[in-house]
Amino acid sequence: MRFSENWTDYELIDCSEGERLERWGDVVLIRPDPQVIWATPKKDPRWYNADARYFRSKTGGGHWEVYHKIPDSWFISYRQMRFGIKTMGFKHTGLFPEQAANWDYIAELIRAAGREVKVLNLFAYTGAATVSALAAGAAVTHVDASKGMVAWAKENAAASHLSDRPVRWLVDDCKKFVEREIRRGNHYDIIIMDPPSYGRGPGGEVWKLEDEIFPLVEKCTEILSEKPLAFLVNSYTAGLSPAVMQYILGVTVAEKFGGVVRAEEIGLPVSASGYVLPCGSTAVWSEK
Hints:
The protein is an alpha/beta fold. The protein has helices at residues 100-113, 128-136, 147-159, 174-184, 209-220, 242-257, and strands at 10-16, 19-24, 27-32, 52-56, 62-66, 74-78, 81-85, 118-122, 139-144, 167-171, 190-193, 198-200, 206-208, 230-235, 260-269, 276-286. The chain starts with 9 loop residues before the first strand and ends with a strand.
C-alpha cells in the first residue's frame, strides 16, 4: 500500500465503528467511512470534542452537526501547495488527502523528465493533482463537468501562487473532450483520471463507471504523445479492484507503448494505531 508521510496540516487521528476522526488544519471532523468495520477503543478525547460530525441518513444523503464554530471554508497546506476545505454534502471536504502519494509521484516524473511535459487531468475535481503538476513545472489541461469544481480548482492554484503557470481550465464532459482532442490531434505526456462511479456531464450525459472506463481509457491511448511518461487511473468504486484497473491499462496502454503497469491500494496512516487505512486504489502505467 502506498501512502504519504509528508502531511502536517492533515491527520487521520483514529478510526473506529464506521467513522474517521480527522484533523484538517485546526479543525477536527468526524466522518463516516464504510471500510472502518472494527470497533477499537476511542481513547483520544477529540472523539468527544470534535468541531463537527457528519451523520448519514437512512434515506440517503446526510447532514453535518456543528458543535463549535468553524469557518465556512479554510485552507490547509501540503508542501508548497494550499487547498481550500469546506464541509460539503455527502461528507466531503473538497480534498482526498490520500491522493498526496499520487501527487508526489507525478511531480517526480515531471521534474525528472528534463523536457516540457503536458498533463491532462480528467474528472479533475478541485484540482489538487493539477496544482501539483503545475508546481512541478508541467503545462496542464484540467477538465471537469462541474463549473463549481473548476472554479474551486482555480482558487487552489491561486492560493498556491500558480495562477501564472500554463493551464487550461475546462468545464466539459470528459468523454466528449477526449473525442474532440483526437480529432484535433492534441497529445499529452501524462494522463490522470479520477472517474466517479456514477455521474452526469454538463449536458446531462450519464456516466456509469463499469460501462465507460474501458472505452475511455482505450480512446485516451490515441492522445498520448509518442513518448508518454505515465497514465494514472484512480478508483473509489468497490467493484473496480486494483487488478481490474491494472488489466485495463495493460491491454490498452501497455499493449501500445510497452512499459509496465502497477496497481495497489492507497491509504492514510492512522496516528492512534500505527496502521494504514485503505482509501481507494490506483493503477499506473509508466514507461519504465
